[in-house]
RNA sequence: GCCGGGAUGGCGGAAUCGGCAGACGCAGAGGACUUAAAAUCCUCCAAUAGGUGACUAUUGUGCGGGUUCAAGUCCCGCUCCCGGCACCA
């Protein structure tokens, strides 16, 4: 109650402060009117004319949190300008929107307030959709998808089954990332600096049997195909680093005492003769067997147990000490036959390479420190190229560079590169290893112990084991009621009625899988569903082959190795299954920067949030859009400034006043500025088109401002025809940026049809160059004066005219002309001595 | 440590292929209109020195070198900032 009256008072005082004036348009009324009109006309529903070239313009769909934030306003504005521009350029444009609607916040809200996730989600969607309408975004809502609805997630489940059939979905027991705050597991991509990407709680480890998607099978293709993408360099690099290809060799160390073999991975097989010990990760499966009958057994088991409870952050910290313990067992060096001790060490990662390394103290910094601490021997086997003779010996720090091999039997004298292959070849001959490529990327863990996600369509039968739910029985629906405790197990597991089911294979009693899928699975294929949102299949193959790939994808950088990597993986699997025609989903990517406020990223905890609705109320959607576009290039972060929106608002009002005045303008006295303004008009069309093609929205807006300034400057000397032509061109060019004002002006200009159905203007290329141009005259590289010349004047003529200029005399007097450089239309440089 | 991106007036930014650095906007100053203010329209606005002045000279794109008739842009060597990865064998 109190809040409401406060809001009313504010509205009243605003009306008092800002009364309507004849020289201003009523932003709110104009924007509202056209939003309703566009909707009535279904203006942005994709047309049926398949003879036009297609353009798929996509922006990352939001999680329906309840309100749009400034980041959303920026992405959707950028995408909307692209979509509107392409439509006017004659493309058939698909510009859909939908909801990434599964996720933890809805479930956490349910725990707190008792409102069912689906109820709060749907309410949030309704509100955010109204905000998008208020922004004047040209979405085609007939393609809307909501990932949490059964008619979407049944297909998410079907895709999971397709992955399962192709051997790309599997269950595995192991230590997994656990977020104690979200009470669920996380994929590797979702752990950033040891903390949960969503809630920033430190991630711990748990031993669980979980479902994975085999993204590692696609590592090489995901890496290779990066080359063909029109993506920003930093995103490509991040993906490349994440995949982390590394070329080296596998080396087998036999354990004579037990008959086992330890395989290690190394990128430096050339240093093999310097290997003086072998280290296993604490989690390595061989550890227990190796120590089984040794006196060290208890001690080693204690060490392993201790290391396994240490968190990843602690264990992988730069400063972490290298701890290890000798197992008491020995392995045989594959080429020298020497017995080397087998250690267990905390610095060896279980899930990279083979989970075991060879220790080469002289040529690896970690091994060097480890060997010093535990007094393990070191042998120098690589001599740097600069060093002469055999005297070189590693003493105070490891030498990790390449060079010439020493102390390496018959390989001595080879350079490192040659030795890598020579040694790998020898290992291969002896069946003790060979060349090998590994990747840093791990398989994608998709199980989540939460309710608000797509149930994994699997049944566990006591007789048949893991059985997929037949496609005909999809969707596996979420139970409508659930008990939300937020305690470590999926709420689905507590619903006995839901869990109990019949085995699809034998009909016996069975239990449903109670984990749901990571929401990144939902968002890995939504852009396919958009093309045919009402299809009875996951998507219509004809629509997909027509629309895909996405021509322009706009989104945030934070998804560089999350959504953008998963979607590429999904697309490759769909391609292999013959479901889609293209191997890459997003041809072109525009990754937009953050909107910063008071110097910091906006967040509730920092208390520096800005509400889009109040800004749009104050200044209107058009001004908000124009400022967003004008303030900075799209990929850069920018600081939200009230004065900046005000500037955009002023610009739009200025355009409006120009139109109102020019509509009443008589012929100027002589039309003497007609030619100038015709050229300015052509130049502006050219500039704005070029800028939109290269996504330089800020300079496009500035060109529109210059155009407006030019029309103001010359208005009294224009014929009525040029007045009108200038004004109509300005209105059309403004349409993608400020759609409401453009529409209003277009109708004021007497047109009955929407400006958004107009074609993008052409221009006469002959008008781009002024007949007279100003060229700079440099003497020895310094601009000394300028002169007006005909634009056609060639280099020789230009040089002659510059030298003949009276102002030239004082500069060249008594000096010798060394060189004359001319750039027609731009400058002359006279070099004298 | 490795990888990527960046540094331009008081501020956001522009300069697309090596060719007049600072477009456009914000802030600021002045003028017009007004009883006055706001709003609007017009003009000025890198620094330093000189000149009443139109102007002239010098310096200037993080720092130091280089290539070139000409460098914000290309090359070499640094500094700092932002982002990503990081005991990955």
What would your notes on this structure say?
The protein contains 27 helices and 32 strands. With 833 residues, it is an alpha+beta fold. The strands form ten sheets. A four-stranded parallel sheet has the order 2-1-24-25, with helices on one face. A four-stranded antiparallel sheet has the order 4-3-7-17. Helix 22 (674-693) packs parallel to helix 24 and helix 23 (697-714) packs antiparallel against helix 24. The protein is flat, with a radius of gyration of 34 Å. The chain starts with a helix and ends with a strand. The chain binds one RNA strand of 89 nucleotides through helix 8, strand 9, strand 13, helix 12 and strand 28.
Shape: flat
Using DSSP, what is the number of strands?
Answer: 32
Q: Name the structural class.
A: alpha+beta
Computed CA radius of gyration, to the nearest angstrom: 34 Å
Strand order of the largest sheet: 2-1-24-25
Summed over residues and divided by their number, the pLDDT gives a mean of: 89
Question: How large is the count of helical segments?
Answer: 27
The percent range for helix content is 25-40%
Q: Approximately what portion of the residues adopt beta-strand conformation?
A: 15-25%
Poorly predicted ranges (pLDDT <50, ≥5 residues)?
1-20
- Ends distance: 85 Å
Largest sheet: 4 strands, parallel
Quick structural gist:
The protein is α+β, with helices and mostly antiparallel strands and 833 residues long.
What is the topological layout?
Elements: H1 2-17, H2 27-41, E1 54-59, H3 70-88, E2 92-94, H4 104-113, H5 117-134, H6 150-165, E3 169-179, E4 184-186, E5 191-192, E6 195-196, E7 204-213, H7 219-224, H8 233-243, E8 246-255, E9 260-266, E10 277-280, H9 286-291, H10 297-309, H11 312-316, E11 324-332, E12 339-345, E13 356-359, H12 365-374, E14 382-383, E15 404-405, H13 416-429, E16 433-438, E17 444-445, E18 447-448, E19 458-461, E20 465-468, H14 496-499, E21 500-502, E22 509-512, E23 516-517, H15 519-522, H16 526-530, H17 541-547, E24 552-556, H18 563-576, E25 589-592, E26 595-597, E27 600-601, H19 612-619, H20 621-630, E28 638-639, H21 642-663, H22 674-693, H23 697-714, H24 720-734, H25 739-748, E29 772-779, E30 782-790, H26 795-804, H27 809-812, E31 817-823, E32 827-832
Parallel strand pairs: 1-2, 1-24, 10-12, 24-25, 26-28, 29-32
Antiparallel strand pairs: 3-4, 3-7, 5-6, 7-17, 8-9, 8-16, 10-13, 11-12, 14-15, 18-23, 19-20, 19-22, 21-22, 26-27, 29-30, 31-32
This protein binds one RNA strand of 89 nucleotides through helix 8, strand 9, strand 13, helix 12 and strand 28.
